[in-house]
Amino acid sequence: MVKGKSALETEQSAVRVLRSLFPPLLLVLFKALLAPIANGQLASMMVARATALSCQWLMGPCSVNSVILSNGKSLSSGFNFGVSPPPLDTDKALKEPCLDICTNARRRKELGTGSSTDGLQCPQV
């Protein structure tokens, strides 16, 4: 079976691609000037709006709710803007079983190597 990239390798690749989309000075200025405002909530909203505008090809038409609660949660989507993700070893999302459309999960079922407990975590994470 072909093994995919680990979560860390995937994250590093995504960061490298995203950084390549912007001039280096812009990222430094954004982090220095905008990120500190309102504990990062302004920067988070700006990123969310830019994502909504630039990623419609992937997500379809979308908008960003401008109402942000004091704990950084958005009322519209369930995404937590301005809040760091939990550590990988405690992240509940990574403990979810693979979807049936996952090629790795299907292949493990075909080979008979996927038990009910084996599917609790994606082998690529």
Automatic annotation (TrEMBL):
InterPro entries linked: D27-like
The protein's name is Uncharacterized protein
